[in-house]
Design a protein that fits this description.
3-stranded antiparallel β-sheet; 154 residues; alpha+beta; 10 strands
């Protein structure tokens, strides 16, 4: 029985079924990871924002970045984003001093609470940005996280 499950997951059939169920609305309130190759491969913040379509995001107190003030291990830094902006459809986490700025991107189905949590890798002390899309506008908030041990690259 476990071998069947493992084979389904290994072949990608399980992911396809989950995606189809989510698209049909049968799995409500699930954030789906979005793959934007250009944004994930961009090296600078400006190039990442451009690839995401956010040329000039507005600062917003309705968006909050959560995470430790000091991360003792840059390899696993817990980071969260909470948006109180109605109609939030996308949340992205960007790290200014990482080799690639975009650490995570989430597409949120309509009616989903815009609150995401993940763990990111940080090579050094840096500003962590939350980029939120609501309607056709982008909003941003920031938090500095200090890293005391090596993450990506040191």
């Amino acid at each position: 029985m476990n071998n069947q499950r493992r084979n389904v997951l290994k072949t990608g059939t399980g992911a396809a079924v989950l995606g189809a169920l989510a698209a049909a609305g049968m799995i409500p309130n699930v954030a789906l990871a979005d793959w934007n190759k250009a944004a994930f491969e961009a090296k600078s913040m400006a190039d990442t924002l451009k690839a995401l379509g956010a040329t000039q995001p507005a600062d917003s107190s309705d968006v909050q970045v959560t995470g430790p003030d000091i991360a003792e291990n840059g390899a696993v830094v817990p980071v969260g984003v909470d948006s109180k902006i109605a109609g939030t459809t996308m949340v992205a986490i960007l790290i200014d001093k990482n080799p690639n700025a975009l650490a995570a991107s989430f597409m949120l189905p309509a009616g989903t609470e815009a609150n995401v949590q993940t763990r990111v890798k940080m090579g050094q002390t840096s500003n962590v940005y939350a980029l939120v899309k609501a309607g056709d506008k982008f909003y941003m908030a920031t938090k500095e996280i200090k890293v005391t041990l090596g993450g990506c690259g040191g």
